[in-house]
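The following block was generated as part of the benchmark described in Methods. Ligand: zinc ion.
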Amino acid sequence: MNQHEILQRYPWDPARLGGKKPVEYFFSVELAASPYELWPHISNTTEINERLGLSAMTFTERNGITIGSNTLAGTAQEWEEVPWKWEYGRFIISERIYSRGLTSYVRGIFDMEDLEDGSTRFTGYFGFVPKGAKGRTILSLAKPIFTKNYISVLKNIESEIIAKRNPSGVASYEIRPLESVFTEREKSPRTSPMDTAKIREIYRELKTVAELDETVVKSLIQYVLTTKTANLYRMRPKELAETMSVDENTLLLTMLHATRTGLLNLTWDVICPHCQGIRERADHLWEVNKQARCEVCRIDFDASAVNAIEISFHINPYIGELKRVLYCSAEPAKKPHIRYQNELLPGEEVSFLVPFSPGRYRMRKLGQTTFILLDIRQDQPVKQLPWSGQTPASSLDAGPGSIINIHNDSDLPETYVVEEYAEDRYALRPKDLFSMQEFRDLFSRESLSTDLSIDVGVQNIVFVDIIGSTEMYQREGNSKAFSYVREYFKLSHEIARRYRGAIVKTMGDAIFLAFSSPMDAFRASVAFSTVFDGKNEKTPIRLRISLNRGSCLAVNLSNGIDYFGQTVNIVAKLQKFATADEIVLSRDFLENELVKAYLKKQNIAVPEVKAGEVAGIGDVEYALIKARYARTPVYS
Ligand SMILES: [Zn+2]
């Protein structure tokens, strides 16, 4: 594609030119990587600008408009960010309207043509509308060097992609002797200096924490010392665990300890349900407000909704004042789920080929909260899907290869978005931390603000209580009975940690525990019945155990973060059906697929579901399992 052709495909709006002739940069290069391999890099303008060595930009938001500023050739510049347009793996168009600086308007176009042999024809175009003669001269002089640099950045990205390809298709994270990593870091302090002496001190401290895995501690320290500065502002444990090929829970535990020792900070980020941008960042959970707004998407949303909050980690300023470097705020790399975003002028029509990969997508217009759910399924025929007028709340099915015909029939420009609609698998949610004993131990001061209750979705709740505790106190005397109970709390705490759950609260001798996984909850219950079988010398007590599964709300009570809701009420009431050596399961728990599969595998007959009445609720359905049947294989 030559310069004439790219402008035919992505024409100028004459109003933007204002009768002037733009200064134009154009280049076209063939790269030995597919558009999909290139996309994460090309769409990450922050990465490209960092590689180009451009001056960092700062962004502020004024009346819902993002204002950027930086310096170019010694001149201060300020501009308004216009929402970018892109189609995943195909094109990106960026626009900036300047209020200060050498230009009044700049647009960039990146087009990727899939050559279908694993390579790409990459075409780039920049058009600058200069403010005056000085701007025109500087921009014209900079053209050869800028174009040359841009191509060499693309070539570097290409060779990195090729180098990373290995037979398994996964780049490996290699652990090196930590001492040499420290030495290297000390020899070449980068733009953002870090205090390596403090990191050494923290490393020594983390090594003494018994429950941490030393390899994982080393991996984390190495990552902090070697990764790009930009990565240190949003570290996501689930994603990082994949990069490092280490266990997710072990890494999360290491990062929690690293936060306690001052290497990292933890924040509660409020995420927009549409663009998935971070709208607020709170250092403490109690600072999160229920009402949130995304100016970019022009919508209000509820921060207590099930996936509205994500926890992320950052380098602690104590390690070094890393100046936050931001280059672009509207870039597609920050919104990888958005496959297509395009502004159409009144009357404009475009066709969009739906993503080929089956899955659920969402079609929405900017500023509207209604959307169309689009399921791409192999068993569906190829369809032509019209999209104009008001976007209704509805759902559609279509086969891969279908086309959406978008027509803006309104009097105003409208932005159309097609995005993947799947849970972000890398997001660490409040529920993940609330049901983690180590988090509750290390961050016992974290609590919710009094007017906020967070939907933590489906949880697995275990309730245990001592059988005949009043008689025990009478029989054994206060001091002995108390030592039994203390041992019981200590062991319960260990069981919670061992099975990746947490003690949510205690009421007298009773304990409520929460688990993310039903199997962890089940195994923990069996562990309870095994440890407290009446024959334990340190604590010869026996327990009633009940299990339930369902939605919960997290609220704040005097003793930290508590769970609330009918799921919790029912689990307590189910106790009345249990004797020692029996575990009561609610019907909802028993009918979980994982639980059913497990019972089958262990040759435990699926117990009969009974109905019984409990006070305040009415009839509940439950089943009883003899703990001794489940015991040995589960606890091992
Ligand atoms: Zn948004």
